[in-house]
Design goal:
The structure is a homodimer.
Chain A (H helix, E strand, L loop, with lengths): L1 E9 L16 H13 L6 E2 L8 E11 L5 H10 L5 E8 L10 E13 L11 E4 L4 H11 L1 E4 L14 E14 L2 E10 L6 H13 L7 H8 L14 E8 L2
Parallel strand pairs in A: 3-10, 5-6
Antiparallel strand pairs in A: 1-3, 1-4, 2-3, 5-9, 5-10, 7-8, 8-9
Helix pairs in contact in A: 1-2, 3-4, 3-5
Amino acid sequence: MRHLKLTVAYDGTEYCGWQIQNNGVSIQQKLEEGWTRFTSEKIRITASGRTDAGVHALAQVCSLKTENQLPPERILRALNTYTPYDIAVTRVQEAPNGFHAIRDAVEKTYCYHLQYGRIQDPLRLRTCWFLPGDLHVTAMAEAAVLLTGKQDFASFQSAGSDVNSTVRTIFRLHVESQVDNGFPTVQITVSANGFLYNMVRNIVGCLVEVGKERQQPEWVRWLIEQKNRSLGGQTAPANGLFLDHVIYDE
Amino acid sequence: MRHLKLTVAYDGTEYCGWQIQNNGVSIQQKLEEGWTRFTSEKIRITASGRTDAGVHALAQVCSLKTENQLPPERILRALNTYTPYDIAVTRVQEAPNGFHAIRDAVEKTYCYHLQYGRIQDPLRLRTCWFLPGDLHVTAMAEAAVLLTGKQDFASFQSAGSDVNSTVRTIFRLHVESQVDNGFPTVQITVSANGFLYNMVRNIVGCLVEVGKERQQPEWVRWLIEQKNRSLGGQTAPANGLFLDHVIYDE
């Protein structure tokens, strides 16, 4: 059996998320159907993480097993021919025997885009969370530092997941501000060895509590200790979230 | 009568263009309707240029005459409440008596976004023209230089307009390349004292002929001399075009 590694970019706006579901069209479905259309082979494509409805990806990584023997270049071209424009396979590589996109990932990086101020940027409706009013970005950056390291992130896990441990290690969590087309924006970039359900969007929601000065930066330290999701900020909307890239031990 | 100057940003994807038309929803219509909804006053809003269907704006400038006496700040907030999210009024200013957004403009700048290579960026479908294959960006920049200055741009005017003179002055025309999220892109920025119908999109189409090495850079000099639109490249699609900003003598 041949193992392949796909790198995929997508605009998640029109999809019910990565995973195949009964109530909507998913990225996984479009990729698997595309594969079947040019190979006549039914396969399963596994992604490093199941992005939710509306979440985007710059370099999602997927694994698959196939009997097909076409060179990677040909597969890349064929798959892009048979998938919609808002999903793009950017790379196809031979993978080591048994390669698994979830199990073998050692680091994942997400990026979240916020825009604030008086007026919402009409050109970034699909890709930014708009927060009316001011945002104290320096305080958000201070709070971000307190979230790094190996910690129990139970307070940042939304209901609906069932994992053995809620301990994860955040390697880096950066908060940067800039002005795009006159609109003030904030980029939150977070790298970890793994993420709990909605963890990035819940971290962003908590950092916004601090940015809005409803909480002090030190509040997130207290929040971690409580191990109680109901005490945190809101879950940030999906449209501002991008799976940036995934690192594997190779 | 009070004169106002509005600065407006919009995503043109869902609109039939700036100007009110029978066969679609226009930006002008949405702004005029928004104005009427909070003032009960019917007015005409004039833009510096009538952008076509699908064309975007970062800082379109509009003029209007009104009996309303609300402060600019209040008007800004009210107008944004009564217009859709893909249209944003970013500034409202008092304007000199008789201010007219078309007549008084001294310089307009457009920006065109191209993306090339093997794979189309799924996150820029609305805002980029995708050209499969390679693009010789240096040759495009050489050709761009030949288009600057005061010249007769008849070869770059699409049918359907009726102007006295086809002479315009291009102050600057820059071609820059960069890589965004791994996708190679080109930005073409052009400033002039005025533009003929479809002039920017026809210039971009001609620069792409050069970039595709179907023509030498010197070809554009010959093209200008012919004063014949049918000899040029294709008209670049609307979705890559942005009205960047407009300068007034004040």
